[in-house]
Design a protein that fits this description.
- Two copies of one chain form a homodimer.
- With 387 residues, chain A is α/β, with parallel strands linked by helices.
- Chain A has two domains: 130 residues, Aspartate Aminotransferase, domain 1, CATH 3.90.1150.10; 245 residues, Type I PLP-dependent aspartate aminotransferase-like (Major domain) (Aspartate Aminotransferase, domain 2).
- Chain A is 37% helix and 17% strand.
- The first copy, chain A, is built from twelve helices and 16 strands.
- The radius of gyration of chain A is 21 Å and the shape is globular.
Chain lengths: 387, 387
């Protein structure tokens, strides 16, 4: 069965990508604009590092694109998430709610704060934290004491909810924000995969207190390595800028630093690449959405798989397209992954769930049955905008 | 007096730099080789991120340059130091010996490990940790219990010594290593400023268990932002590579991670810049040493200042040239800094001592009288290789 299904997937990928023979990669960047010019300009003008016009320009352009007032460019999405958590007030010993179905960087960023991830199930509609399951879990597993939400089992404060927009598909932000308000939780958006994605007409990253983007090489647009912190809060933006630039107090020559801080600022040469990439974002998103709709059409004919579509009311960037086995089965999934990769069709499973990684296995977790099903059934298929 | 001295310094800087009018910056990168070609090649081939030929090539070239067996390229020097400390076995609650006279990143890296800096004075000969003062302090302030060196006052284990090569001048490595061996301390070299510097004919970074380089924009050679971990130990090298690449277990498609780790790998586009820069390192070091010898000659005639020279037996890269007020005086120092910067001669003081920064003020510290004198007397003067 898996052999036949693999052949069907390969046939569709080759048809949709237009690559009849040879390897089809999962996601490749698309350098079709001013990348060479801007990057060379950095070298010609001697401004390659953490100060330079492209860093400022990149931040302005991200703010214009997302509608979020402040953008602070960082060396990567993990660094952005780390600062988001600190600025949301996450303290050592706290717990932070997050989905178990995500990339490891989200959990690591919590660990960097000496806090503990607390895993919640996802919705099969959004692949993001499930509002109903979150609410049920909070009702059963927490209590409010002196205005602080406590995990009844561990006794630790639960400070924040980190929401992830899986594969670029926006989470159910209104419902999640409402639960956060009800329980006194700060909401952080992990929008690492979601540049260009919208929730009810508004770019993601606007709903949380503070949000993170990523521009890693495999993302929709790239700076080589890079990320950004987004916030509409003036004070948090100022703090984010300070924390990402070694906490140096502005002075013409003095080296004074007033807090433990980080060397997280994006270099100018990476920002230059980002500026050129951002100019093409509209085009890239259009190409990716066309690709997704072609996949959607083709996979309608495959009985054993469903193509993952954006939910009503949102616009996804379709960063990575995904097909889902209608009958979750690890063996079939693995056979498909082995066969297709061997045939040069680069496909990948969803991440191993965070609660199955050794360093997070002992962390608190709600019922994760939907996540476990998805772990056994999701396969990402080639999604480059250049197809 | 300061006014007259400032004019004398300006006169020498303008003579040596050949810049008769207008601003003279402190340190500018020198892009005179294949920078444009290599960086454009990354874009042309679609390899800009954490995988690509330039990252591997850069690592090989650094190993060839330094003679250290393994190089692991990182996003910056701070990240490299953080991993060095972890791999030296620094645990939460430990103390790490370091000089108070350094850039804040060194202390921050210790704080990231949830450990505490313990400050030691520097030698006026090397500007690095003073072996005599270190030995005296260890004798007086520590005791050995069950093979672990303890701070007698705080009761905390002292795990390692971080040695810094200030302005590219190698520390007294033999003496320091001998003390480390005697007291069971791991030695880490913070060689952030010292690419191209040698101690008794051997490149720095070879003497410690594990060492860190930096390629920030203000350094001798640059990758925009970047750094490297150096070690001659095969096992530590393997662990460093694992910890800097999110702890991902190698697999063709599976996303499994087996430890809390970091997104610290240098992007290919930054490594491309670094490869071109490394090709010119010999030339850059030669230019910088010629510049230093010209400064040295000129400052012989200035009675109130001494030019800081490398100590016998070492070869410094003279990253930042320094003059030292013979009579330490904060007021004179500040007047010089204000006057010269206002006149377009970019100069800077040494860093505010770590024990004077609010977040490290309560950390254990030995007598720091030499550091305090240097804080009041050191001024770095323009040092670009392009002069």
């Amino acid at each position: 069965m898996a052999e036949q299904l693999a052949r069907k997937i390969e046939q569709i990928v080759r048809k949709v990508s237009g690559i009849a023979h040879g390897p089809v990669v999962l996601h490749e960047p698309f350098f079709n604009g001013n990348e060479r010019q801007y990057v060379t300009d950095c070298i010609d003008t001697n401004w390659v590092s953490t100060v330079g016009k492209y860093v400022n320009l990149f931040e302005q352009q991200i703010s214009r694109t997302t509608g979020v007032k402040h953008t602070i460019a960082t060396i990567n999405g993990t660094a952005a998430l780390h600062i988001c958590l600190q600025l949301a007030g996450v303290q050592p010993g706290d717990e932070v709610l997050m989905q178990a179905l995500t990339f490891v960087a989200s959990a690591n960023a919590i660990a960097y704060c000496n806090a503990t991830p607390h895993f919640i199930d996802v919705s099969p509609v959004s692949l993001g934290v499930c509002p109903e399951r979150l609410r049920e879990h909070l009702k059963a597993a927490t209590s409010m004491q002196n205005g602080i939400l406590l995990n009844k089992v561990t006794g630790r404060p639960i400070r924040a909810l980190m929401v992830m927009h899986t594969f670029g598909h926006p989470s159910q932000l209104d419902e999640l924000l409402s639960i956060c308000n009800e329980y006194g939780l700060k909401m952080i958006e992990d929008a690492a995969e979601a540049i260009g994605s919208e929730y009810h007409g508004r770019h993601v990253g606007n709903h949380g207190l503070i949000s993170a983007l990523s521009f890693n090489g495999n993302k929709t647009i790239t700076t080589g390595g890079g990320g950004a912190i987004l916030t509409n809060d003036d004070h948090l933006a100022q703090q984010a800028r300070h924390l990402t630039t070694t906490g140096k107090v502005t002075h013409i020559w003095e080296y004074h630093h007033d807090c433990i801080a980080y060397n997280y600022r994006l270099p100018n040469i990476n920002a230059a690449l980002g500026c050129a990439q951002l100019e093409q974002l509209g085009d890239v998103i259009m190409k990716k959405r066309v690709l997704a709709s072609r996949y959607q059409h083709e996979f309608k004919q495959v009985a054993d798989l469903s193509f993952f579509n954006e939910m009503p009311g949102v616009k996804s960037n379709y960063w990575l397209n995904a097909v889902i086995l209608k009958t979750p089965d690890m063996e079939t999934r693995n056979q498909l992954l082995n066969t297709l990769n061997a045939d040069g069709i680069m496909v990948r499973p969803i991440w191993n769930l965070m609660n199955r990684l050794p360093m997070y296995a002992a962390c608190p977790a709600a019922d994760l049955s939907i996540s476990h099903q998805l772990e056994q059934s999701v396969i990402n298929i080639p999604s480059s905008p250049s197809f």
